[in-house]
Amino acid sequence: DAGVIQSPRHEVTEMGQEVTLRCKPISGHNSLFWYRQTMMRGLELLIYFNNNVPIDDSGMPEDRFSAKMPNASFSTLKIQPSEPRDSAVYFCASSSPTGPPYNEQFFGPGTRLTVL
Amino acid sequence: GENVEQHPSTLSVQEGDSAVIKCTYSDSASNYFPWYKQELGKGPQLIIDIRSNVGEKKDQRIAVTLNKTAKHFSLHITETQPEDSAVYFCAASNFGNEKLTFGTGTRLTIIP
Questions:
Q1: d(Cα B58, Cα B48) in Å, to the nearest integer?
Q2: Which long-range contacts link B38-45 to residues 24+ away (Cβ below 8 Å)?
Q3: Do B104 and A42 count as a contact with CB atoms less than 8 A apart?
Q4: Is residue A90 scored above 60 in pLDDT?
Q5: CB contact under 8 A, B44 and A91
Q6: What are the percentages of helix, strand and coil residues in chain A, rounded to 5?
Q7: pLDDT score recorded for residue A99
Q8: Among A26, A54, B49, B112, which is most exposed with the fewest C-beta within 10 angstroms?
């Protein structure tokens, strides 16, 4: 299994531009999570989906952020317009309803976003 | 909601010595406590977890203890090796809830 796949691995953009991050979860996993990691705030959950439906988006910072999961094998996180304070590493993770271990989240390698 | 505090933020130990990382949680309904290890340039990876019906769990050089009354849990690494150098995160959740609340992380450095 290839694990969780994220693209791009690095993104450098200018303030005001639209940014789209992509994630392919592990096949058979039915939950998908988007996290943001910064030195100041640590690892923050932005949103998570179960069976392609958004369950909790309380961590989404503001309306500039949106996430979609059109099917079981693909999700996007979009920032429009981007701002310098959005610079962070964004992780996607997926999990399976079966276990043990239960609730284990498998993380992708992350996308390092830099907004100039 | 749940709040997880983690200490220390950085920890340096001599190779071969033990390392201990501590976490406290606020929600008494939490009953699942995983620990994740994040190596440089990679995403976090689960290394061990414990459920609230167990006080201690061990896996080779790694052990986790849980004190439900005090609402704290700890990670113990014995006979540390250079490959143990990483950032470690504790987390908490309610078993029926997939959402994990993570601590702020501990950067562990093993000194050769």
A1: 8
A2: B38/B86, B38/B87, B38/B88, B38/B89, B38/B105, B39/B86, B40/B86, B41/A109, B42/A107, B42/A109, B42/A110, B43/A4, B43/A91, B43/A93, B43/A107, B43/A108, B43/A109, B43/A110, B44/A43, B44/A91, B44/A105, B44/A107, B44/B89, B45/A107
A3: yes
A4: yes
A5: yes
A6: 5, 55, 45
A7: 61
A8: B112
Residue ranges of B 44-103 with Cβ closer than 8 A to chain A: 44-46, 49, 89, 93, 95, 98-103
Look at residue A1 in the predicted model and tell me its pLDDT: 65
Q: Which one of A42, A43, A48 has the shortest CB-CB distance to B99?
A: A48
Q: Please check whether residue A45 touches B, CB under 8 A.
A: yes
**pLDDT digits 0-9 by tens, B5-22:** 999 999 999 999 999 999
pLDDT of residue A9: 97
Amino acid at A18: E
Picking from A56, A95, A110, the nearest residue to B43 by CB comes out as: A110
Render pLDDT for A9-61 as a digit per residue (tens, 0 to 9). Answer: 999 999 999 999 999 999 999 999 999 999 888 899 999 999 999 999 999 98
Q: How far is CA A6 from the centre of its chain?
A: 9
